[in-house]
Amino acid sequence: MHLLRRPPRMGCSSNRSIAMPVRQLPEQVVNRIAAGEVVERPASVVKELVENAIDAGASRIDIFTDGGGRRRIGITDDGGGMTRADLALSVDRHATSKLDDEDLLRIRTLGFRGEALPSIGAVARLNIVTRHASEPHAWSLSVEAGVKSEVMPAALGQGTRVEVGDLFYATPARLKFLKTDRTEAEAIREVVRRLAMARPDIAFTLAGEERAPVTWAAALPGAPGRLTRLGDILGSDFRGCAIEVRAEREGVVVEGFAAAPSLTRANALGQYLFVNGRPVRDKLILGAVRAAYADYLPRDRHPVVALFVTLAPQEVDANVHPAKTEVRFRNAGLVRALIVHALKEGLAREGRRTAANTDGAALSAFRPSFVAPRPTNWDWRRSPAYPVRPMPSFDGVATSALAEPGQAAFDVGAPTADVRFEAQPSADLLDRPLGAARTQIHETYIVSQTRDGLIVVDQHAAHERIVYEKLKASLARNGVQRQILLIPEIVELDESTVEKLLDRAEELATYGLAIESFGPGAVAVRETPSLLGKANAAGLLRDLAEHMAEWDEALPLERRLMHVAATMACHGSVRAGRRLKPEEMNALLREMEDTPNSGQCNHGRPTYVELKLSDIEKLFGRR
Description:
Shape: elongated
Number of domains: 3
Structural class: alpha+beta
Radius of gyration: 33 Å
CATH class of the largest domain: Alpha Beta
CATH topology of the largest domain: Ribosomal Protein S8, Chain: A, domain 1
Largest sheet: 9 strands, mixed
Strand content: 15-25%
CATH architecture of the largest domain: 2-Layer Sandwich
Distance between the termini: 100 Å
Helix content: 25-40%
Low-confidence stretches: 1-5, 10-14, 370-376, 380-420, 552-557
């Protein structure tokens, strides 16, 4: 039986495409299509207009928004302004004053496409008032849905004022895709923050009904001024632990500030990257930052950095994306290597600042918690937290029930450390950065004394970093020294784990761990790194197998080897619960002082906490 296919009815959809003649689109439609590439949301409008103000040489820029930028956006600057003729031409498509010639490889301004103003005017109500120094007064121009008015005289002291109202009223479909006013206002705030970081020499004011006005005053030139602006935007935590970084080679300069590993975020949104003063989101740079911090942070934490890359305009293509948020480098390898070198050098130079004493968290942990005052008529006898118990009496005098917990507070138990230290440590040890070891508590933490405070060291985390750095140095120098076991150690594991380990046997051998198959479900360990001493081979191999399960072929061999070294260092370090002699504690402190990056263990945890004497005095009300 043959099935007959009915012809489609008129008005119904059909899979067959209908041939249409080629026609030229009206100018208004062309402008709205182009506007969709440039003006994605209110934050896009703010970005384009503020960049125009920066290119005009403004020293102060004021931004005002209403309704998340949907109802109104106002940008005022004190820049050079435009003449009457320039104003009339500025709202025409592909008209720009920011290109000296047709060479798109030497772009030195933020905006150069000539699409911002006509794109905004195509989807909103745009009004521009501007005054050039050569003009006797200001001029104004309005554009509504792509239709521009005549240039009219206006009043304005200096610079340019741009107002955008009823955004997307000419394209109502775009309004459906906007978020809430609060979300759009936050996107605008993030755009202004990034532009303010890029230009600390310009004063910015951001105001609107969604928030209280915030002003970032113009900062002094140079690194101190840049750090002041970054601290104003990223907070005092960043300013307190910021490490200056800089590297230069072949005309490429990388500079900026990176937070110590003690300050991290749960995502990469705290990484601000700028290329020739342009805020960008570049995967190459983000990957370089991640590689530089790999030895300092846990895998689920991200650093906070603000990096500025400066190079010749012809060495970078800023014309990759319509919104100019992406760039392409001619020598991407050089830029990545410089970023990694600058960050690693800065972190190693300020290694001691990477501990947990940089952000005030250590001190705040010791502060007594606030206890709310009791009402004046409060009776503890009726409170469920204080059950009434019979009170024994001695010689007919009742004893308070609070006496029992009060006495128990003085029962401190047996000491957990060897406190047989000299009464006064030697002066030369007190002058060392990590001081003189005084005692060990809970067989885990070393307490040392310095001239102006005390330091608490996590012995396992500290020794883990020491062993890790020695493994890396040994590998770079002449390979890891290994010890041959007289009797190979047989480790039984499940077959899948054995296969993972044997597949990576060559990489493990690089770090002195020689393994081979010993039948199904077993591995024979024949050699181990000498730095690990007597290692627990079974535990070490299980941990290595767990890490290898997360590897993929995209992970560079160097990073895989560093994972192996970190795991080995964890197993070869002094364990918590081991009692150390006084000379062993001091030896560990001295090794920490000579080891780079000793402020953090391989997993990103701090190795020590420092408390200044002045801070301790504040805790006890002496200051």
